[in-house]
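Private note to self, pasted from the team thread so I don't lose it. Backbone tokens:
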């Protein structure tokens, strides 16, 4: 195998040229543990730690590697190594970890980079109790700001009487993002994903616990590599079975990232990220009387007029307001968003 199998491209190769004579190797982070990472290099898999230098130089959390990152490592004996630097990311997605530090007064916001160098995010949603249009809008907004493409995957069609009706509901809020149905329990149904699984492309599966992300990964790998577990009978919620992000290489060359189900997804990004996830509202807004219309109760608001006319659902506008507020609050904390 070579580096390109793991998603290496000219974008990273250019950054590595200054390291070429160092004897160090480029490596991709494939799994993060508490105090070390597993990386893949041309010489195989290594267990690596941070050099003191990277700790010293890191100004904030986002300077530390996450799964999907490309790093420069010095190899040591026994398949071990040290990470010397983090190469610039082609894309990354982050969430906000609010109110983590105890203290009085203002709400605190902290950017947490979840994963890096992802080309496509599959937003997985279950067609059981998990189904929630507002949550899908939230995920779409997250992906809208991160530089990756998106696909919405509605799983567990077998548990739903009319999957096509739900697919249509999702298509209404999805804009240009494609929406696909599947039943991951039947691996043969995953063949429809083939067009998205291209060699060297990194595809992350995101969604709540229990929606079937690991089942999809196992189905595509053709073997049970990831543990899966039944959702709770009482409330249909998942049991947070997957606890680590991890990359897997498929036979056809695509790279899949399994992720733990996210409990809370607070957005990190810019208000402009809504331009991609709410194109319908942004289009209507061009006809509002005031340029800075907030679509609350301003006169001449084309957005609220569309709600009154039944063209736009009020739940969708409420969702837009909620997400816009959330992104707006990040304000200047957010100047180093990448
Ligand atoms: N009926 C049905 N069950 C499914 C389908 N796909 C997955 N499941 C089941 O849903 C449960 C949860 O699946 P997982 O793959 O563990 O879900 P996950 O998204 O990885 O969950 P976390 O790792 O907790 O985030 C398991 O019991 C799966 O067998 C499907 O298409 N239909
Ligand atoms: Mg899982
Ligand atoms: Zn308006």
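Design output:
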């Amino acid at each position: 195998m070579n580096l390109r199998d793991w998603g290496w491209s000219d974008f990273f190769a250019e950054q590595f040229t200054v390291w070429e004579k160092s004897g160090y190797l480029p490596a991709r982070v494939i799994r993060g543990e508490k105090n070390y990472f597993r990386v893949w290099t041309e010489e195989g898999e290594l267990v690596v730690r941070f050099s003191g230098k990277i700790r010293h130089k890191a100004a904030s959390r986002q300077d530390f590697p996450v799964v999907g990152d490309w790093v420069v490592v010095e190899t040591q004996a026994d398949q071990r190594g040290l990470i010397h630097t983090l190469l610039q990311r082609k894309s990354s997605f982050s969430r906000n970890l609010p109110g983590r530090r105890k203290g009085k007064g203002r709400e605190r916001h902290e950017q947490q980079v979840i994963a890096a160098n992802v080309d496509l995010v599959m937003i997985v949603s279950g067609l059981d109790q998990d189904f929630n249009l507002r949550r899908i809008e939230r995920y779409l907004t997250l992906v809208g700001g991160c530089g990756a493409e998106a696909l919405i995957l509605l799983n567990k069609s077998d548990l739903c009487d009319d999957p096509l009706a739900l697919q249509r509901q999702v298509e209404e809020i999805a804009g240009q993002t494609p929406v696909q149905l599947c039943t991951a329990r039947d691996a043969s149904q995953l063949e429809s994903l083939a067009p998205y699984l291209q060699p060297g492309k990194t595809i992350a599966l995101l969604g709540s616990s229990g929606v079937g992300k690991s089942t999809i990964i196992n189905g595509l790998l053709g073997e049970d590599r990831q543990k899966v577990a039944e959702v709770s009978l009482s409330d249909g919620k998942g049991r947070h079975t997957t606890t680590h992000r991890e990359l897997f290489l498929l036979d056809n060359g695509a790279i899949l990232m399994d992720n733990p189900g996210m409990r809370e997804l607070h957005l990190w990004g810019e208000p402009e990220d809504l331009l991609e996830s709410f194109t319908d509202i942004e289009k209507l807004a061009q006809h509002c009387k005031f340029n800075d219309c907030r679509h609350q109760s301003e006169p001449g608001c084309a957005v609220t007029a569309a709600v009154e006319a039944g063209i736009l659902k009020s739940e969708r506008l409420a969702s837009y307001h909620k997400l816009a507020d959330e992104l707006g609050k990040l304000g200047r904390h957010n100047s180093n968003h990448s």
